[in-house]
Every structure is written in C-alpha cells, then in structure tokens.
C-alpha cells in the first residue's frame, strides 16, 4: 500500500531527463544472475553470482527495497517469470541472460528500469523497451578490456593450433608434425574486425605489435582519424570486402536486427578459404549450422568464442564438438570472457552506481544508456 | 662431404603439406641442392641409442644439422666419435642440445638460424600468458564435456590488464614479448638479464630491470622464461626460487624445459603456489608418455597449458629456418664468413655472451 501511494505521488518528468525522481523507497529489484555454488562461497570475488548478489543486498535492503535474486530463468514457472510481474527494476547479466522478450514484457507491469550487469543488452527486446518507456542501461566499459584480451587470445590459439597440441600432450602422444602442419604465426596475416567500437578498437590496439600484414575494420562509423592512424587500420566499405581480404575475422559488434545471422552460408563463401573466425560478440550474429559446416569443410580453419545463440548452451549444441578436417579448430568456451574476477568487480560497482543515480534522481552516465525515456540513446544497436 | 640431418618425422602430413619443410620427408628442401654439388645427405629422425642412425652416421659426418623440436643430443662422448665433424647447424634457435664446451675443445663451429623463429616464440608466449591468466583450458574442456557452469571458470579467470609481468631474459625473444605486451596495460613490465636493454629500447616498452632474481620473481604476477639453457640457467627455477614467487603466479616457459626443475614445478602447481604453467619445452624431447608435466594440475584442476615443442616450427617459421640453414651451408661450402649473430661457438671459443656470458 505504501508503494502504491508512493508511486502516485511521483512527479512527471520532462522528456529530456533520463532518470526518474521521487520516492525510491520500497521498490522491488529483481536480479537474474548465474549460480556459483561452492565456488561462490570459497571465492567471494565471484560477485556476479546468485550467492554473492553483486554485493548489493545490504545496501538495497537498508534503503527499504526488496531484492530478489535468482538463476532460475527458463519458462513461465521460473522465479524470473514470477517475480518479473511486479518488479520495478530488473538486473540481468549476459552470462546467464534473463531473456526479456516482448511476451515477458507484457507481464512486467511495474518495470521501469532494466540494468545489464555487463555489456550487451540484446537479451532485452529493446524495441518494446522503447515503446513502454522502460529505460535500459548497461555498465559500458566494464569488461571491454576483458573481452578484447579474450579476442587476442582466441586469435592466437586458433592461428597457432593450440588446442590439438594440448590435447596431444594430455593423451600421452608426441607428434610435432601433426600440430605444426596447421600452425601459423599471426605475423604477416590480415586481421579484420567487424565493429570498431569500444571492444573492436581495443582489439586493434592489442594487435599492433604483432606486425600483422594489415588491420582492417568494418563499421557504420569511421574511427576518429587519430585513432585510425594510431593503430594503422584501414576501413573497408562492405562486410564482403572485409571477409574476402582477411585471414582472421573477429566480430565485435552488438546483436540487433541488422546483425542477427550476419555471418551466414552466403557470407562464409566469401571468406578466404582456411580463414579463422572469432566471435566474442553474440552467438546469434553467426548462423550456427553454417559455421559448423564451414569448419567441417575447411572453408574455416578455426572458430573460437564464448558466445552462443542460447545460453546456457544445450549439451548437444554443434559448436561444442565441431572440428575442421584435421580434427582441430575449435576454441569454444562458456560465456565468461566478460566475467573474469576483475570484470565482475567493475560491473558490480557500475550496477550499484546506476541504481544509485536512479534512486537519487540523478542523470545517468550517457555512455551507459541504451534506451532512455522512450527512445534510443545510442546508435550502436542499429543506428537508430 | 657428408651432411647428416636429424629432423622430426612427418608421415602423411609431410606428404599432404609440403610446407612442413623441417620433416624427414621434406628434408628442409635442400636435398637436390646438396646432391647437385656432389654432397651426401643423410636425413633421419632415429636419434636415440648407439644403434640409431644418428650415432651411426655421426662418426664420419662433416656437417650435422639438428633441430630443437626433435633434438639430436650431441654429447661430449659423441663428439669424440665424430672424427670429421666441422660444423653443426641448428635449424631453429637454441643450441643447448649440443655440448658447446666439447665443441670448443674439438674446434667445431656451431651455428643457429638466429631470428628464424623469435617472433613465432614471442607470439606463443603471449598466447600462453593469456590462456593461463584467463583460465582457457578448463573452460574449453567444460564445453567439450557438455557442461556449462560459468562460475567454475570465472572463479580462476583474470584479466592480464593491471598485472605485473616479468621476463627472465630480454634478448631477441624476451624483448619481442615485452613489445607485444605493451598495449595490454599491465601494471608493470619487468626484466631480469645479465645485460641491460639499450636505453631507448627499455624506454620504448617501459620495462624496468631488476637485479636480483628472487626480488624479481617476488614482484611478478606472470613470469616468462626467455633465456638459453646453459650451466648458469639449468635448474634455475627450482623449489627454492618458487618459494619466492607471489602465491598464485603464472609461469610460462618456452625457452628450454631444463631451466625449470620439473618436479618442483609440478609440486608448486599442485599446491597452488603457482596458478598455472604453460610452455612447449621439456627436459627431454620427445617427452615420455608419463612425463609429469603432461598431467599436472592446480588445486582447481586447471592451470596446464603444455604442448609439444612446436612454437618455433610453425609453417611460417619452417620456411625461415630452412632458408637460413641453406644460407649457413652455402657460406660454409664457399668458405664465406657466417653472419655474426648466427655463430654460437667458433675457433674454440664462444662467439656470443648469451650462453653464459663467456
């Protein structure tokens, strides 16, 4: 009753402000996080777990808010579905995403704010958020370096044929030629990034001392001239241009209608035969069966990344077991590149800062706003 | 003259992939060139024991070509039997598998193809650092198993950013490692070396030299070994030095296996004193099936990034060291001087300080 009364007293806002004011007492905050089990107890730095709750419980409860945290997110009987009905604020995380579909939105009668603890908010139907005037924020920058490092690691482990080499050692074998036959140096190769935003640019920066033959990028925006010069990257006009010239292709763009299924059978046929593909962006940017087929045929020499069209990935997902003709070329991992212990600290703090701004009626950091009060606040999700 | 080469076997791979030049089958691509000049060329991978091709043919070979990836161990005893031997060429970088002191006693020249795979190895170092710090292997194994448990991986996964990385050795490979680490915004880049980097080079990578080895290791989150194996570095990383590491540090060794005490490293990993160990070099190569470094793990069941010795024999590197081996042979045949950086020992003495500052 107190909450209803409080809400009706809340003043209306002008469209230019991106945060609400008024009473912030007694809100229901729902967080969908991944479970940590024993690990979360033994390792308190696993802040992004259900057990450790982004470190927010005491802070939220001391302000009179209700805080529900769960990993149970699939289906209409899930804790996510049940608590969404009256949640004011939803916190989600890309590593175990609560998929806020248009149907789920319909049940979310009180929802005002969705915060992504991490980077990438495609698991939320952003068009619906715009229509419903629900703000969507993410902790921009919280793990851009983490992911960029993971990209460079993936490029190296694919090009240098690490996985079959390590498997050989575990098996008790030793056959240098079997590994060397498909192992190359990164030096002198052409590397292209689809997306030269915060992550893509950091990838380019990290590649500079490797003396690649060329660094290419495809983006709806050019890099600022100085940034482009500093990394020596060349912008190409079309995605086909990029893939046809690259030995290594790395995807660093968000998932939206314009990028879903971007890497399909048709585009893969334009890749250089034997190219390596890294995707730490979102699984659904690549057609999963087309990628598996391309790897199997050798059109791709390797594929690596930590993102999947659905997470958690099913036990029988083709990307778990797909291999190139020599039995290698698979560098897949669960979605964790942006949730290293270092990154968790940053996005936990960033989530708290966003909530604090919201409670206090302060403006949010513009860089964090994906959907503001009824409109897109960034071009990154489809240049709207 | 008789040229003997000990290379690794390629089998069908060598037939299907002609760029595998460093194989017995593809013979560094020099058979025709040698035979057209009237030289005898014996190539084998059979190197262990008195009945091996290596020991049979060494007795009258004038030139011996070896490779670190499948090394023909030219001991002092074998050198005594090698009556005609004048020149040893390492097809690659690192000639510790040859007893260099004995080579000096017998006035045998030892050359290596300096620079042929320094970039290859530096790349492998950075890859190894990232895969250890970011806990890649357990994550990939989890996917292969059909599982999905993010927290089990994340609990031991870190960013390289903000960590202190130190290299033991800032020579051709060590320096290239520092260059590649620069954009990762490490907290600090340190090095330990008998020689300081030239001032400009040190400044360019922002690396700080540390004089005392124990002091050095105690400051590092990541340690990478990039020095040659000689009497001064054999067993350098032993149980005592490991005690001075920061707890949970990561150790990468792409230099030579014997620089690290194999049991001390395995014990340190098992206890968690180090969080991870990765590299492609082993105290004996090929590594025995039951070598402890194949299966050692940290307390969480990860931390192992071992591979066979191949970082310096990528297809790109093989082209370079095959061409370089040919150049060295050509200089020898024509009586021309070798490129100075390729000469390890000559005329009874060390031509480089890298193998023990002699």
Account of the protein in words:
Helices cover 34% and strands 15% of the residues of chain A. Chain A has helices at residues 2-9, 37-42, 57-62, 79-84, 102-107, 126-132, 144-159, 162-171, 176-180, 198-207, 225-231, 239-245, 265-268, 288-297, 318-321, 341-360, and strands spanning 28-32, 66-70, 89-92, 113-116, 135-138, 190-194, 214-218, 233-235, 248-251, 275-279, 300-305, 330-332, 369-371. In chain A, strands 8-7-6-9-10-11-12 form a 7-stranded parallel β-sheet, sandwiched between helices. In chain A, strands 2-1-3-4-5-13 form a 6-stranded mixed β-sheet. In chain A, helix 6 links the parallel strand 4 (113-116) and strand 5 (135-138). In chain B, helix 6 crosses helix 9 (172-181). Chain B has helices at 11-16, 31-35, 53-57, 76-81, 100-105, 118-133, 136-145, 150-154, 172-181, 199-205, 213-219, 239-243, 262-271, 292-295, 315-334; strands at 2-6, 40-44, 63-66, 87-90, 109-112, 164-168, 188-192, 207-209, 222-225, 249-253, 274-279, 304-306, 343-346, 349-350. The model of chain B has no long low-confidence stretch (mean pLDDT 97). Chain B is α/β, with parallel strands linked by helices and 358 residues long. Chain B is 34% helix and 16% strand. At the A-B interface, helix 2, helix 7, helix 8, helix 9 and helix 15 of A face helix 1, helix 6, helix 7, helix 8 and helix 14 of B.
